[in-house]
Amino acid sequence: MRRREFITFIGTALASYPLNVGAQQNERARRIAVLSGVEGDAEGQTRIAAFRKGMHELGWNEGRDLQIEVRFASGDADRMRAYGAELIRWAPDVILANGSLVVAALKQQTTTIPIVFAQVVDPVNSGFVDSLAHPGGNITGFVSLNFGMGAKWLEILKQIAPRVVRVGVLRDPQTPGGSGQLGAIQAATSSLGVELKAFDVRDTTTIERGLTVFAREPNGGLIVLNSLAASIHHKQITDLAARLGLPAIYPYRFFVADGGLVSYGIDNHDLWQKAAGYVDRILKGAKPAELPVQEPTKFELAINLKTAKALNLTVPPALLVRADEVIE
């Protein structure tokens, strides 16, 4: 289900709720807090819509037996901590957390309220869980990628832009697991005949400066790693790649919808609906320590043919056949 369908679903659902929701709350209403590190833009809203849809399909009715409070931290660490404290004071039954930095902020503030995370890269080395199979503690959830995807990104980039021999890797050094992603890409460079250059994603100035300098040499391409900072600055990154003539591959489909060349990664909306399943199980008595962390199983490949044409690239037919979405 794509963005327009999600927004339509939520609009219809909200229209059906009684105006005086508070008056209909009762002692059986369960509380779900949602803290997202990304902005509350259309993409952020559709992820929340996917979670709400998942809860609805599991038999929960917001406004009757369920209350959901949502906060968007928009990449601000102070806001993550402040919103986390605010939501914890609300005494939710479960917290749904988006991103490693958000989970880290919540972990410092509660060891008792169940936390289900979505889109965390490396929960074990981040210290969120003891292991994927046996999380322990009050935290479990869904991993957003496996490190093997790094080699896949490089392979797809070379398929769509075979002249690329220099690859810039845009990363956020604050993202746990970022070094693992970079290492997986590095391991595949010799077989594909490319050399890497890593850039840090911190703010608009460093992104502009790093990519502009990199693009001065010919035959360059770009891999954007999965990170909160990359999601927040995604429009600037896709616009820069287009202006500088850099073929680029991204971790999420919404980069391609905004003009990026190609993306390969998890289906965000599918993952957020799955997160609803864990929240449902916890509300019915399951403990986070008993729910194994799940790795991604569903991936999507998206290609923007308009961007490919602007970069004078011909997308191989085999890649087009594999694509889940082609933007023309």
SSE blueprint and pairings:
Blueprint: H1 3-16, H2 21-24, E1 30-36, H3 42-57, E2 66-72, H4 77-89, E3 94-98, H5 100-107, E4 115-120, E5 139-143, H6 149-160, E6 166-171, H7 178-187, H8 189-192, E7 195-200, H9 204-214, E8 220-224, H10 228-232, H11 234-244, E9 248-250, H12 253-257, E10 262-266, H13 268-283, E11 299-304, H14 305-310, H15 317-322, E12 325-327
Parallel strand pairs: 1-2, 1-3, 3-4, 4-5, 6-7, 6-8, 8-9, 9-10, 11-12
Antiparallel strand pairs: 10-11
Q: Brief overview, please?
A:
It contains 15 helices and twelve strands.
Please provide a written account of the structure:
- The protein has 328 residues and is of the alpha/beta class.
- The chain has two domains: 174 residues, Rossmann fold, CATH 3.40.50.2300; 146 residues, Rossmann fold, CATH 3.40.50.
- It is 43% helix and 20% strand.
- Strand 1, helix 3 and strand 2 form a beta-alpha-beta unit.
- The longest helix is centred in the first third of the chain and has 16 residues.
- It is elongated.
- About 6% of the residues have low confidence.
